[in-house]
Amino acid sequence: MRGRPVTGDVGRADAGTSRAASAPRETSVGRGTLVTLVVGSMVGAGVFSLPGRFADVTGVAGTLITWALAGTGMFLLALVLQSLAVRAPHLDAGIYAYAKAGFGEYAGFLSAIGYWASACVGNVAYWVLIMSTVGQLWPALGAGDTWLATALSSAGIWGFFLVVRRGIRSAAGLNRVVTVAKVVPLVAFVLIAVLVCDPHVLADNWSGSPASGSLVSQVRGTLLVTVFAFLGVEGASVWSRHARDRRDVGRATVLGFLSVLAVFASVTVVSYGVLPQDQIAALPEPSLAGVLEAAVGTWGSVLVSVGLVVAVLGAYLSWTLMAAEVLFVAARDDDMPRFLRRTNAADVPVGALLLSAVLAQAVLLLSRFSQDAFTFAQDLTSALALVPYVLAAGFGLLVVARRTGYGPTERAGPDRLVAGLATLYTLLLLVGAGPKYVLVSALVYAPATVLLLRTRREQGRRLLRAPEVVVVVVLVAAAASAVVLLATDRLDV
Predict the structure, then answer these.
(1) Is residue 190 assigned to a domain?
(2) 52: domain CATH number?
(3) What proportions of the chain, in percent to the nearest 5, are helix, strand and coil?
(4) How far apart are CA 298 and CA 52, in angstroms?
(5) Secondary structure, 3-state, 206-249
(6) Is 189 domain-assigned?
(7) Of 269, 327, 335, 389, whose CB count within 10 A is highest?
(8) Which of 78-87, 145-154, 330-339, 443-452 has the lowest mean pLDDT?
(9) Where does the protein end up (predicted)?
(10) Which whole number is the average pLDDT over 282-305?
């Protein structure tokens, strides 16, 4: 899906974002760093919970089908992002900019808010899992939901704020080291699990337990889990303004995705050869540690636990960078309040970084009132990211449909098929997330409208257009419904 940069109507739809094309870059990174950003943001808390989350729903057959479907769907999205990085190199922080360029200012705003909030909620899930892991050695931390765990997690949030505030280059350099360090335990796990695999146990786990239901329901029940695992595939696209060569953004996206898919699928499948499905499902998080402990003893659990802490801290760093970057680019393009476009001498968007830390802190405090803070934060993170994914894939389809950037003899058929299937896949995921997470997501989108209103008041513009009023009313109604259902215990979180 290659071609010349966007030049038609789609390209002009975001004149604000295009200003970045000529702006001098104080920092730049190469393809290797962009690949580690993709891998670093994808390999986090999700992979260490995959065995338990999958075994709770399905067996080996359902797992293979799920990874085949999810891998294909997300690979198509990765190809769309690769194409857009070449065809629309003037659009920075892709996930947000693509939504705005294709579907208008308000769609871009919602995409930026959804992606940013998804990153912040995901970071809370990371801290909960870290404290739960350490809690196995230090009972005072419990399952990551005690006041001591909350206090330590809060210290971590603000500690990382200070690290990232020092500069993009220092944070990216640390991310490269952490990415390598956290992949090693996962590869070791796969190799050990293959060596100790019991073919009889693997065969018994093939079709899943009787309570798992039909194969279709098993696959449906695990697809949302894969969304959380694949979050970060757009990492290079989000950080595109720092790329030394824009072509490296697309290449890094595909290389990073394929590498991580191989690791995720392997980790999940080989676990079924170590323990029966019901025992894997009953393991405390991180379930990966329990599987390796059953295979080789206590040292296996220690290895995974150390790898988890390193992996999650690395992913937290990547997501902190990406969350702030999306808000900064949106503010620079006059779609967010001016205070979010402020940068320091190290080219770090301090206003956006501070707001991200504040939201993470707020969600961390709220998570203490959840029945299962980690699982809820994980699924809510996935649900919030789906709207930005749908809009990005839709923009890819729009670019192909209008043949923007194509030569007279250049074929667009293959690109149209890829973009169409990617859009269909993300839409199905959004529908499959269910009304529960749609309603809870409205609790984020509705209040965030205040940022839009402040932005337009700063610019002396009309606060809302008629179509936007309709969307805001729907979001407020959904948020109000969620509050009522939560207050009456009819919506469990």
Answers:
(1) yes
(2) 1.20.1740.10
(3) 75, 0, 25
(4) 18
(5) CCCCHHHCCHHHHHHHHHHHHHHHHCCCCHHHHCHHHECCCHHH
(6) yes
(7) 389
(8) 78-87
(9) Cell membrane
(10) 83
